[in-house]
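Predict the structure of SET domain-containing protein.
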Amino acid sequence: MNARKKKGKSRSRSKSTVSDIVENRDEYFGGGIEKYSVKISKLMGRYMVANVDLRPGEVILSELPIVVGPCTGCKVQCLGCYKNLEERTFTKCKQCGWPLCSQKCKGIGSIFGHTETECFILKQTNSARFLNYKNVSTIRTHLHAIAPLRCLLLKTTSPDQYNLILNMEHHNPLRQNIPEVWNTNQINVVDRIIKDWGLKEYSEEEIHTVCGILEVNCFEIGHDVNVRGLYPKAFLMAHDCVPNTNHNDEENYELTVRASTKIFQGQAITLSYAYTLQSTLKRREHLLNNKFFECFCKRCSDPTELGSYSSALLCPKCTTGIVLCDNPLHAESTWSCTELSKKCPGYTITAKSMKLLLDRITEEVDGIDCNDVATMEYFLSKYRNVLHPKHYINFGIKVSLSQLYGKTKGFLIQELNEDQLERKIEICREVLEVLDVIEPGFTRIRGVTLYELHAPLMILFTRQAAEKNLSKSEFKRRLREIFNYLKEASVILQFEPKSSAEGKMGQAAREALKQVEEWQKIIGKF
Ligand SMILES: C[S@@+](CC[C@H](N)C(=O)[O-])C[C@H]1O[C@@H](n2cnc3c(N)ncnc32)[C@H](O)[C@@H]1O
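Done. Here is the predicted structure for SET domain-containing protein.
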């Protein structure tokens, strides 16, 4: 699961209507000191609401996981630390024979790694005899059973934690009717545990339930590793396509959830289970197939996606009109030109044709090298009369360009000419305009984009200041602008892990800010 409206306007977008609230659930409510309480609605089940007004950046909760394990669809990983083992030499656990990065892996015997109990069970069941080390990639599917096994082992080692897990949503009745989901779990998890390993103390239904709980409630965590974690409280946050929280996890998998915007008392505390930079169609499809519910949030219900135009096309008939989905809550809905004046003779496209068009364009984008600035710019130009400038496909390209200008070979920041610096500024501003709608407030991507924006502004400023082309007031205005972007970037990025790319960017922002503050001392307050 993952994490955002303009500051100060959040109250109007509280997720649950009063009539939707059925009952208060106080069992998660720790003696009045928690910043949230749990309510239950017919639509969403249990969900968190703020007990007090929460400021952007404020910690809502911090907690260790109940269970950590490999994701489904992962590559072959170390059972202790989850390093990808497919592109490196590795070893087998001397006891149980399952893959490890080394006999000294720090995850051996660790509570969120390869525990003694797990090792004992995997050894006792002689489970490694099913692992074909001659064809390593075949081991991938065997790892699907590890996280479910870790949950099941809690039944004896920590019954309280097991009961906490069993209290989570599994959507068995819905998942049972999706063969790809149910049958895959039957083969990779249920049959593996019961038939191959002979662990008959668990029923098929119980194992399917645990699989469902992991699918519905896990957070994707870990740094440079493909890991999922089940947390005792954070799972209670409801989904919203413009969430109001952000989260991070530390080396020890501790998860910290912070408010990304102001959250008013009584408002739902939300995160996005889908990728916010995608279109409504894609997000809703993901939520239905992976989280088993239909999203009816304000963004999904609005053809303009709250003015972010993430799904909008340009009209091929009148060329100025915007083509939007007639009913975004129906995947099969037609799309029409919304130009109301007489300029457009009328344009409608079926859902099927729209899908074909977007699939073709997506294939083209997927073929672009992730460092190829020129081809990305060519793509934007090629589709300038087809895709709305803020369409999610264009937006993805612009996010990449906002970072590539100044960073990639041939486009290093000091090498950029004035036009290229202006282009970086233009793209960063366009990206921020959309982010202010779909990922507002203290969000990682806003922090990064603000930092990216300060850099070309600073270079242009120093070049022009050196040429003495600036009046005193212009000098101060430009410096103030840079200062403000840097300040916000450093505030947002201070919450990122120090060793991460974003954490390092936060550090760089703080250092650049100090330099600007030094100039301020010389030239006076700007
Ligand atoms: C991680 S759980 C959240 C906790 C869950 N509501 C409970 O009572 O255990 C995710 C599930 O909550 C429900 N849910 C969360 N957000 C929702 C939303 N915006 N609309 C409808 N259902 C939602 C869906 O059933 C989803 O599969």
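Residues 2-32 have pLDDT under 50 and may be disordered.
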